[in-house]
Amino acid sequence: MASGGGQGWRVEPTVFLQRRGEGLWRALRCTWGGGALPSDARVRIAAGGWSGEDAMVPDTLHKGVLTFVPEPAAATPLVATLEAGGCTLGRADLTLAPAPRWDVHIVQHSHFDMGYTDLRTHVARQQKEYLDEVLFHIEATADWPDEARYRWCTEVTWGLLQYLEDRGPRQRERLLAAVRAGRIEVNAFLWHMHTEACTLEELARTLYPLAELRGRWGLPVESAMLSDVPGAVAALPDLLAGAGIRYFSMSLNNLRAPFHRLRGNGLPLPFLWEGPGGGRVLTWYSASGVIIYREADALGFTRDLATAERGLAEVLQGHGGLGHGLYLLRGSMGDNRLPDRTMATTVRAWNERWAYPRVQLSTLGRFFSRLEAATAGTVPVRRGDWTDWWADGLGSAPAEMGQVRALHRDVRQAEVLTALAGAAGSPERLSATEGDEAYAGILEFDEHTWGAARPEGEELDGRWSGRRQWQEKVAPLRRAEQVCARLRDRALQHLGERATRPGRGHALLVWNTLSWERGGPASFWLPWWYRGEPCAVVDAVTEEPVALEVRCHQPHPRRDDAPDRNDARYLACFASDRVPAFGRRAYRVLFGAAAERMGRAAAGGGPAPGSGASVSLDPRTGCAVAGEWEVQADLRAGGLARLCHRPTGAELAGNGPLGAFVAERYRVVRDGVAEGFAQRLLERLPGGVNWRLDAARTWAGPVSATLAWQGDVPGGALFRQEAVLYAAAPRMTLCTRVVLGEPGQRAPREHCGAHLTFPFRTGPCQPWLQGPGGFLRPGADQLPGSCTPWYAVDRGLALAATDYTLAFCAVEAPLVQVGGITTAFDDRGVPAPGAPGHVCAYLWNDFWTTNFPVPPSGELVFTYHLELLPGTWDSAAAYRSLCAQQDDLVTVLLEGAEPAAEAGWCPAVEGPGVCVETLKPARDGRGVVARVLETAGSGGTVRLVLSPGMRAWRCDLLEQDLEPLRVTQGETVIEVGPRSLATVRIAQS
Q1: How many CA within 13 A on the CB side of residue 833?
Q2: Cα maximum dimension of the chain
Q3: Are strands 223-228 and 247-252 parallel, antiparallel or unpaired?
C-alpha cells in the first residue's frame, strides 16, 4: 500500500473504511515529525476531483491524525498537504488504491493443556465449568448484532465428552442446542498431540470420539485445530480426511520454533495440505507472528478498541496481498483460561465504528466455508511433513519414553493376537475394550504437555505443582502397561488352547504379528521349576531340533536359610524359521533324558539348522562374528571400531567409532527475542575412560554371539554396551546401558543431554526418516519453515547408499539428528549441513526450562538394530525391515499340551508393497478391522484371502462401513492408492 511524504510529513492509507450515508470513506493516517505545530494547522486533501480539509487534531489512538476521503473505485492520485498560517509545511503525493474489504474472523477458545497450570484432575473439572460459562455468555449476547454474538470453539473433545457424560439432561441439552445453532463448534482431536511421538494407529485413535459425537449426540464435526505444538506429521491430512474432516487450523507456538522467522519460505495462506496418500484438508496457519494461538488477545481485543485497531491494522497491512479478503485470528486468552466476554464487547464497538475491516466472532467451520467459496479452486496444494520444532523435548524423560515406545509395540501385538483369537467363529469373543483402554493411557502420556509452568514446584496443586503433575502424567502409562500385559497374555492363552491338545509334554508356539512371512530370533522363559537340566526345542512338524541357548537370570542370590528356593529364571533363545503371516509355528520343548537323546541325534547327523556354525568370538581382540555381521569393539573411545556386513563386504565403520557416547551441557543464548527463539550452545564433556571388555557378559553360543564392554562416564556413571550378532538372522543389535546413580535419586537440575554418534561410512547416501505411515527425506519432503535440526522417528530411519540400504531401528529413544550433531544455528535458524551418513541418536535431552525435572537415574537401556538390505532404495523393503526389527516374534509355552492342527483363520494380504499396519477387534464387536498401508508408492490391487462364510466391507478411519466388498471364492480385492491407508472390516456372514 503506497504512502507518501517527507521532511517530517507522512501520509499513509489505512485498511479502515467508514460508512457515511450510502458511501464508504477511507481513513488516512497523517503524521508530523517536524516539531510543534501551530494551532491553526490544517490537512488539505485533493483526490479524483474531491477536496476537503481537516483540523490537525491528533488521534492518539492511531499515533497521528486520522482524516477521511471518499473510497475510490480505482487507483486515484492523491495530494495531501499540511498547511498553517498560509504556508505549506509538507506535501505528500501518492496513489490511493481501493482498500481490501477485509472480513476478519476471531475464533474464541481456551488453550487446553493437560496440566501445566494445575493438576490434571483440576484441569478436567475446569474444562466442564468453562462450558457452563460459555453457555451463560451465549445466552447473554443472544440479542447482540450477529458479528458480536458469543461463539466458542472446543479445542479438543476430551472435556466436551466428559461434560456430556457428567452433566444432567437439562444442562446437556443446553449445550447440544448451542452446538446445533452454530454458537459452539466441536473440533476433531481428542487432545493436542506431539504427533511425531505417536504411531499411525495412535493418531487414528485421537479421532475415534468423532463416531460417538456424530452418532450418539448428532453433532456436526468438520474442523480440527492444533494449538501450541509447532509441527505435525505428514500423514495427518490423510487421517483427517479419512475421518471426514475438511478444515484444519494450525497455530504453531513460535517459542523456540522459528517458523515465523522463516516465513520467507513460500508457504501460502491458505493451502491444501495433502498427505502421502492423497488426503487433503484446507489449512490455515496463524500468520500474524505474534503470540500464536493468542493472536486476538495479543492484538488488543481483550483490552480496548483503540489497542485492537492498532494491532489489527499492522497485521492486515502486512497481508494485503492475500486477495480473498478473509483473515482468521485465534482468540485464546491463555492456557486453561476461563472464558469471558471482553472480545465480544470489543467486536461490537469495532463494528459500530468501522464498516471494514468487518470483524466477527466466528467458528472454524464458518470461516473456512466462506474461505472455500472465496478461493474456489485457486488454493495451492502443498505436500510434506510439518516437522515439529519441539521434538527434542521428547528426550527429557528417557526411561518413560522407552516404556511408552515398548507399549506402542506391545499394544499393537496384543490387538493382533486378540483379533486372531476372536475371529472366524471362535467361542471366545474377545472384546476391543482393553485395547482402547491401553491406547487411552498411551495417548494421555503422548499428549503435548511435557512440562509445567513451575516444573520444580512441590505444591499439592496450582501452578507450583510440577512434581505432582509429573506423577499424574506417568500414571496412565502404568495403567496401560497393566492392561496391555493382561490383554496379550489372555489372547495367547486362547490361541494356545486352540492350537494344542491335552498331553504330557510342553508345546511352544511362535506367533508372527506382521502381515508377511518371516523368521528371526525368538525367546521364551523356561518353567519356574527348571534348574538347568538338559533342554531341547524340536520342530513339531519336521521333528528336527533347532539350535538353542539357555541363559540364567538370577536377580536375587539364593539365601542360605532357604536352600530350596529358586530365584533364578532361565531364558531360552533360538531362531524360528518361516512363520506365516499372522500365523504360528509349533515346537515341542523336551527336558531331561529326552532332550539329551535329541541332542546326540543332532550331533551325529551334523549341525542342526541355524546351529551357529559361523559364530565365533575372540575376547582378546574384541572381535565377534556371527551370521551376516563381523564387529570389533573400540576399547579406546567406546563403540564399534569395525562393523562389516559379510555378504556384501560393506565396511560401515571408519569415520569414527560407531555408538560412541557423548555427554553435553547446554548454555542458552537468547537471540531474536521477538520471535521467542533461543540458540543453544554445546559444551562437550570428556569421553569415557578405562574402557574394558566385560567378561561376564561376553560369550558365544549356537544362536548368537555377545560382545560386551564397559567404561566410566563423567559423573560417576557406568556405561555398558553389548553388540549382539545372530547366526540365523540378518540383523545385529547394539544395546547401550547407562547406570546413573540410584533409581529415584533426585539429581541437581542441569540442562544437559547425551547421544550416541554413528558416523557410518556409507559414501554418498540419502537419509530416509520413518514416521507414522511412511518415510521422509530431510528438507526435500518437509513444508517450508519446518524443523530441520532434529527429528523424532517412529521405528527408525534408513540410509540409502548406491548399492545398499542400511535400516537403523531405534527402539527406545526416538530423537535423532542426521548429518552430525547440531546445537547452534546460523542467522536463519537453519543448521549447517553435515555428512549424510552421520547419525546422532539421543539418549536423553533436557534443554527446556519448563520440562518436567526428570533427571536420568538408575539403569537406562537403549537398543538399536541394524539390517543391511542389498540393492537400490526400496521403501517397502525398508519399511518391512524396521517393522520386523521392532516387533519380535511372540512366544507362548504351554505345559501339559501337545501341538495340534489349528482350526483358526489367519488373514492373508497379498499385494506389492502393502502391509497390514493394524489388525484389531472391531469396536462394535462385528468381526475384525484391518488397516492396509501401501508403502511402495506405486499403489495397486490388494487381495485379501478370507475363510468360507466371511464378508468384508470398506470402512472409513472410524470403522464406519462405506460399502460392501465383493467376495468370490473366499477372496476379495481392494484398490489402494500410493502411500494410502485403507480400512477394511472382516466378519462372519
Answers
A1: 5
A2: 122
A3: parallel
More confident residue, 187 or 320: 187
| SS3 at position 372 | helix
Using H for helix, E for strand and C for coil, what is the string for 251-317? EECCCCCCCHHHCCCCCCCCEEEECCCCCEEEEEECCCCCCHHHHHHHCCCCCCHHHHHHHHHHHHH
H or E segment to which residue 572 belongs: strand 569-579
Nearest to 918 by CA among 887, 875, 892: 887
- Whole-Å CA distances, 678 to 791, 846, 853: 18, 14, 20
Q: Helix, strand, or coil here: 603?
A: helix
Sign (positive or negative) of CA dihedral 245, 248, 253, 258: positive
Whether pTM exceeds 0.85:
yes
Number of CB atoms found within 10 A of residue 29's CB? 19
Pairing of strands 928-934, 914-921: antiparallel
- Residue 101, classed as helix, strand or coil, is coil
Quote the pLDDT of residue 22. 87
- Kindly tell me if the per-residue pLDDT of 676 is higher than 70: no
Helix (H) or strand (E) holding 943: strand 940-945
Render the burial of 812-847: b for 16+ CB within 10 Å, e for the rest: bbbbbbbbbbbbebeeebebeeeebbbbbbbbbbbb
pLDDT at position 749: 55
For residue 299, how many C-alpha atoms fall within 13 Å in the half-sphere facing its CB? 30
| Three-class SS state of 806 | strand
CB 878 within 8 A of CB 807: yes
Structure-block grid coordinates of residue 343: 472480545
For 790-825, how does the pLDDT look when each residue is reduced to its tens digit (9 = 90+)? Answer: 899 999 999 999 999 999 999 999 999 998 777 544
How close are the terminal C-alpha atoms of the chain, in Å?
68
CA distances from 589 to 491, 496, 510 (A): 21, 15, 12
Beta bridge partners of 987: 951
Q: Where are the alpha helices (DSSP H) in 423-504?
A: 433-446, 466-498
Give the whole-angstrom CA distance, residue 336 versus residue 116: 9
Q: What are phi and psi of 900, to 5 degrees?
A: -140, 165
Contact 371, 326 (CB under 8 A): yes
**DSSP secondary structure letter of residue 487:** H
Q: At what angle do helices 120-140 and 466-498 cross, to 10 degrees?
A: 100
Please calculate the CA angle 356-361-362 and round it to the nearest 5 degrees. 110
Q: What is the pLDDT of residues 861-913, one digit of tens each?
A: 999 999 999 999 999 999 999 999 999 999 999 999 999 876 567 778 888 88
866: helix, coil or strand? strand
Tell me which residue of 786, 777, 774, 763 sits closest to 838, measured CA to CA. Answer: 763
Q: Closest Cα to residue 861, out of 750, 744, 734?
A: 734
**Average pLDDT rounded to a whole number, residues 670-683:** 38
Helix axis angle for 466-498 and 433-446, nearest 10°, is 150
Which residues, at least 6 apart from 977, have a Cβ–Cβ distance to it below 8 Å? Answer: 277, 278, 934, 939
Which three three-digit cell numbers place residue 307? 489497542
- 90 forms beta bridges with 82
Nearest to 519 by CA among 608, 587, 580, 589: 580
Only one residue has cell 499396519, namely 917
Q: Is the dihedral of CA 13, 19, 20, 22 positive or negative?
A: positive
- How many Å apart are CA 917 and CA 678, to the nearest integer? 39
Confidence category of residue 754, pLDDT binned at 50, 70, 90: confident
Number of H helices, E strands in the chain: 15, 56
- What is the spatial distance between Cα 648 and Cα 444, in angstroms, rounded to a whole number? 45
